[in-house]
Amino acid sequence: MSRGRENSASTYIHGSEPGEQSRLSRLNEILNAMCIREMAIAPGSRILDVGSGLGQLTRAMARAAGTRAVGVERDARQIEEGLRQARAAGEESLLEIRPGDAGMLPLREEEWGTFDIVHARFVLEHVTDPQRVVDEMARAVRPGGRVILSDDDHSLLRLRPEPAGARELWEAFCRA
């Protein structure tokens, strides 16, 4: 469905080569259980996962809800590998991954405003217009539903004791 907007520019700086997919899979193994616990997903929840990547967290959310979840991912290699992993785990029925852009979600007209949970993890740091992505997510969630954002904020790093020059180096990293 076209709403007269151009595709939002974004850059996933890590790419989607097999080595990066392996790193992402490992990151999911480390983080997903804690994330699912914190989300407190109610049974039957209708879930949209924006920037679903390999779909591992999408499937975990679907398992927690006992329903099929919808993921949106723009990278064809991530979709392909995500579907391969779902098949290998016998969990293909838990997710539908749609090709699309986080800033212009590929939802049917009747789907807008119907999701109980609209989630994005590690997406906003890669888009040029994060507000546009959040606006799309807010349109997709039902009244009383939840938009869950989990992203990096590098400015939060604190070292104790802080080595000489560490703050300046970290601030330069954050600017870059």
Percent helix range: 25-40%
The CATH architecture name reads 3-Layer(aba) Sandwich
In the CATH hierarchy, the third-tier topology is known as Rossmann fold
Q: How would you state the average pLDDT, rounded?
A: 85
What overall form do the CA principal axes indicate?
A: globular
Number of strands: 5
Top-tier CATH class: Alpha Beta
| Structural class label | alpha/beta
Concise overview:
With 176 residues, this protein is of the alpha/beta class.
What does this structure look like?
This protein is an alpha/beta fold and 176 residues long. Helices cover 38% and strands 18% of the residues. It has 5 helices and 5 strands. The protein has a 5-stranded parallel sheet with strand order 3-2-1-4-5, sandwiched between helices. Strand 1 (47-50), helix 2 and strand 2 (69-73) form a beta-alpha-beta unit. It is globular, with a radius of gyration of 17 Å. The protein starts with 17 loop residues before the first helix and ends with a helix. 33% of the residues are buried. Mean pLDDT is 85; it is low at 1-9.
Topology:
Layout: H1 18-39, E1 47-50, H2 56-65, E2 69-73, H3 76-88, E3 95-99, E4 115-121, H4 130-140, E5 141-150, H5 166-175
Parallel strand pairs: 1-2, 1-4, 2-3, 4-5
Helix pairs in contact: 1-2
Features of the shown structure:
176 residues, alpha/beta, Rossmann fold, five-stranded parallel beta sheet, 5 helices, disordered N terminus
